[in-house]
Design a protein that fits this description.
single chain; alpha+beta; 3 domains; eight-stranded antiparallel sheet
């Protein structure tokens, strides 16, 4: 079998095998680029507020939440990154875990969403479809394998593209030639970006294997995460406002994205910190505080993290397009649609293809310009 024919058939049959599932993953991936925007748009009354001059103290805000949900055990506070977004307080009731939304400027409790409601939301369902095909861990592995096979298709596609080097579409040609040109153009311009999407996607799908391997790149081990505070008999924990101030002082220049609420037990206060260059939703830096003394028991700083940890910190934002904000989100969105377009155009290239074509006919179909 000629070298080119081998790659052509490998490209074709792999594409036919994974085409439908890949199209689902690609289209859902395009939607997930704007996952947070979709979720907020569908829950505007809970998600948006009118900006005021300043936030109310955390003590007052948590008191308002406690008054509205007297039986709930409050867990943590999530701070909005935009002035018109509401603050969230995670809590647990007798029935379920809930996210409580509050206007941080007025103290008005806006409502709540249970964990079950969040799992049933459109954004979450699209997320589970994209990452797991609604099939749990097995589905996540299947997505990883599909991603690997798509990477193979991208490489073989470039091999097949190289002799002709098609950069644009001949608009006045036949529909078959237009379809063929679209398939090549989509593949060419999507391939460079897709390389990052595929590699990081496989890292996420098989993170139980890849994370420990990547962590070995660290020259020094990460600091041990403390498990409890030093309880002072008769003493009350520090206020949430004071602990938030300690967290900010431990990592100057980082945004406080979230912090656990002191409850007087042995637990450690965990502050989620986010530097401007960190595009992940919750940030990757952490400050662990003693809830009684306010001492920083451990600090994980993304700016001083070792190599392996830096790679692991980047994998999610590199996969979702968050890494450089709106520019890469838009680029990833277009890339995912191009990937779906390749499945459609590839199908029409194959559709009604004669089963007993000889090599000459095969070559003409692969290169319509030669016909």
């Amino acid at each position: 079998m000629p070298f080119r024919t081998f790659w052509l058939k490998a490209h074709l049959y792999v594409g036919l095998t994974i085409g439908i599932v890949l199209c689902v993953v690609a289209v859902s991936g395009a939607a997930l680029v704007f996952e947070d925007n979709i979720d907020r748009a569908r829950h505007r009354a809970l998600s948006f507020v009118t900006p005021g001059d300043h936030f109310l103290p955390l003590q007052e805000l948590t008191a308002r939440v406690k008054a509205a949900y007297p039986s709930a055990q409050l867990g943590s506070i999530s701070f909005p990154e935009k002035p018109d977004h509401s603050m969230q307080v995670s809590a647990r009731t007798k029935q379920d875990a809930v996210s409580i939304y509050i206007n941080e400027y007025t103290g008005q409790v806006l409502g709540d969403r249970s964990a079950a409601e969040r799992e049933a939301s459109l954004a979450r369902r699209v997320h589970l479809l994209h990452t797991r095909l609604f099939a749990g861990q097995i589905g996540e592995w299947i997505v990883g394998v599909i991603t690997f096979m798509t990477l193979f298709m991208a490489i073989t596609g470039l091999i097949l593209w190289w002799p002709r080097k098609i950069f644009n579409v001949k608009a006045r040609a036949s529909w078959r030639r237009i379809n063929f040109d679209l398939h090549n153009v989509f593949g060419l311009y999507a391939s460079a970006v897709f390389l990052f999407i595929a590699l990081t996607g496989m890292m996420i799908s098989f993170e139980q294997i890849t994370d420990p391997l990547i962590a070995r790149l660290n020259a020094t081990p990460l600091p041990e995460v403390p498990k409890q505070s030093t309880v002072v008999p008769g003493a009350a924990p520090m206020s949430a406002d004071a602990l938030a101030g300690r967290a900010k002082a431990a990592l100057p220049g980082a945004f406080l994205k979230g912090i656990s609420i002191p409850n007087g037990g042995k637990g450690v206060i965990v502050a989620l910190m986010k530097y401007p260059e960190d595009r992940t939703p919750g940030g990757r830096s952490r400050v662990y505080l003693d809830q009684y003394s306010g001492d920083a028991l451990a600090v994980l700083n993304t700016r001083t993290a070792p190599l392996g940890t830096r790679i692991l910190n980047l994998k999610r934002s590199a996969h979702t397009g968050d890494i450089f904000g709106a520019a890469t989100q838009t680029l990833y969105f277009v890339t995912c649609l191009m990937l779906a377009g390749q499945i459609v155009t590839g199908f029409f290239i194959w559709w009604k293809r004669p089963a007993n074509v000889d090599e000459k006919t095969n070559a003409r179909q692969a290169n319509p310009s030669a016909a």
